[in-house]
Design a protein that fits this description.
By secondary structure, the chain is an alpha+beta fold. Helix content is 24%, strand content 20%. The longest helix is centred in the C-terminal third of the chain and has 20 residues, at 196-215. The protein folds into two domains: 4-130, N-terminal domain of MutM-like DNA repair proteins (Alpha-Beta Barrel); 143-283, Helicase, Ruva Protein, domain 3 (Orthogonal Bundle). A hairpin with a 2-residue loop joins β9 (256-260) and β10 (263-267). The chain has a four-stranded antiparallel beta sheet. It has helices spanning 4-18, 39-46, 143-150, 158-163, 173-183, 196-215; strands spanning 23-27, 53-57, 60-64, 68-73, 78-83, 93-99, 104-109, 115-120, 256-260, 263-267, 282-283.
Length: 284
């Protein structure tokens, strides 16, 4: 699933290509993409609307139109592709936006898990995008605010907390593993056991990691692409994710894969000292 850096790169691409443009028409080869209004109503309401602004909240893209807010979640395999002219819809195309002129924007989604929701101005607070925790790239992601969130559930395991969008928005498996490795903290640690220096190291590693990934175009292991179909290259700079048995960047010890809260998790068991783990939880 695209995480915060990939969604931010897509938002920036949309800003470059469709900001200020008017939607001439919309087609929905997969009407099930639209979740909160009738697909025919959706197409009618945004026909003729101008794209006023684009924002991101966590993993959500928010497209502000004249009278509506289009909320987009890419889920596992959703991507946008921009074309200077009409292009025939492919087998995985779920929506096509045609702008005044000849430009088109295709939403492709192999797994059909992506979602579009359309909100009127007075309904925006109902959107899931406005029910998220702190966004690591926003100004309010200060250390003090981060620490406040850590104190809410002191008996929670650290990785489970970081993946919970109610507390920190936008992080997924890749960037949680990488951030914890940079901070040298085991993912199964209880929040109440973190020292002040560990909290500060984790806060700093999250912010730095996400900014670096955005700079490198995000991480492309499978489906993620930019609006021109380009792959991100941050996977070439990852230090731990999907690198079990390779030497740790910090100490040279072989990296490990464990199963934590049902999620495959990559780490260094020397640099990230573990609490007691259940027998058999470590896998190569």
């Amino acid at each position: 699933m695209p995480e915060l850096p990939e969604v931010e790169r897509i938002r920036r691409g949309l800003m470059e290509h469709i900001s200020g443009k008017t939607i001439a028409q919309v087609s929905l080869p997969f009407p099930g993409l639209v979740k909160n209004v009738d697909p025919a109503v959706f197409m009618e309401k945004i026909r003729g609307a101008k794209v006023r602004a684009l924002q991101r909240r966590g993993k959500y893209i928010l497209v502000y139109l004249d009278q509506y807010l289009l909320e987009i979640h890419l889920r596992m395999t959703g991507i946008f592709l921009f074309y200077p002219g009409p292009v025939e819809a492919g087998p995985h195309t779920r929506a096509v936006f045609t702008f005044l002129g000849t430009e088109t924007l295709h939403f492709q989604d192999v797994r059909k898990f992506g979602t579009f929701r359309l909100w009127e101005a007075g309904e925006m607070e109902v959107s899931p995008a406005f029910c998220l925790g702190l966004d690591p790239l926003e100004d309010d992601f200060s250390f003090s605010r981060f620490e406040e969130k850590l104190l809410v559930k002191p008996h929670t395991r650290l990785k489970s907390f970081l993946l919970d969008q109610r507390y920190i928005a936008g992080l997924g498996n890749i960037y949680v593993d990488e951030a914890l490795h940079r901070a040298r903290i085991h993912p199964a640690r209880l929040l109440k056991t973190l020292s002040d220096s560990e909290k500060r190291a984790l806060h700093a590693s999250i912010v730095a990691l996400l900014r670096e990934s955005i700079q490198w175009g995000g991480t492309s292991f499978s489906d993620y692409r930019g609006l021109q179909g380009q792959r991100g290259v941050f996977q070439e700079h990852l230090k731990v994710y999907q690198k079990a048995q390779e030497p740790c960047f910090h100490c040279g010890h072989p990296l490990a894969r464990i199963v934590h809260s049902g999620r495959g998790t990559y780490l260094c068991l020397r640099c990230q000292e573990p609490p007691l783990l259940s027998p058999g939880s470590i896998q190569s």
